[in-house]
Amino acid sequence: GEDVEQSLFLSVREGDSSVINCTYTDSSSTYLYWYKQEPGAGLQLLTYIFSNMDMKQDQRLTVLLNKKDKHLSLRIADTQTGDSAIYFCAESFNDMRFGAGTRLTVKP
Amino acid sequence: NAGVTQTPKFQVLKTGQSMTLQCAQDMNHNSMYWYRQDPGMGLRLIYYSASEGTTDKGEVPNGYNVSRLNKREFSLRLESAAPSQTSVYFCATSTGTYSYEQYFGPGTRLTVT
User: Fold this and answer.
1) What is the rounded (10 degree) CA torsion for B87, B99, B92, B60?
2) pLDDT tens track for B12-27
């Protein structure tokens, strides 16, 4: 089947930028999503991008999409300790597929 | 406005026991989903219901059954629990199937011994 892949861990210092990367294989995907999961909670949608867009910015979040390479990234500017969580990339077309999640740790 | 609620929050079962996980939503969404989350594997879809009265298998349906009781409620049943079903189970809803934002419940942590 189609896979969504992400690195499992990322550690940054407070105030730095974080970049979380994701690759997907289904070129038919219409929407690509970033979800955030805090400890003991369900997933919460952070942002999404349509497949015909290259970039989307939402306050401290910037999503970049490279359709040719099937690569999606999430940049968090001025990362705070409250951003520590697991971030999931997901794609949808006929179904929704999630990556394994990247655990972001923000050190003070 | 509770959003998506799940009961119970935690459950321990012995191998062979049965149980039903409950999910309810007050968002008036048509589609509902059951996922399981295992370390390093992300979320995998067990079953989904595109609308009231319909259910379909997802990626990992074996060992589970579902019931879409009405528009609000979607339950997941384990008839004979196995240790491989130890996981965190999430219910989610959306206005339409897949190509819309999904809203997640807080999850049920199930341990099968």
Assistant:
1) -30
2) 999 999 999 999 999 9
